[in-house]
Amino acid sequence: MLAFELRNGGPRLDLAAGLEAGTRAGMGPSGAGKSSLLRALAGLLRPARGRITLGPETWLDTEAGTDVAPERRGIGFVFQSYALFPHMSALDNVAFGVRSAGGRHARRRRAVELLERLGIAARASSRPAELSGGERQRVALARALAREPRLLLLDEPLSALDPRTRAAAAGELAEVLAEAAAPAVIVTHSFEEAAILGDEIAVLDEGRLVQRGTAAELAARPASGLVGDLAGATVFEGSVCGRRAGLTVVEVAGGGRLASTDPGEGPVSVSVFPWEITLAREAPRGESAMNHLSGEIVSVTEFGNRARVMLATPQPLVAEITAASVERLGLRGGGRATATWKATATRLSPRPS
Question: Full-prediction pTM beyond 0.85?
Answer without folding.
Answer: no
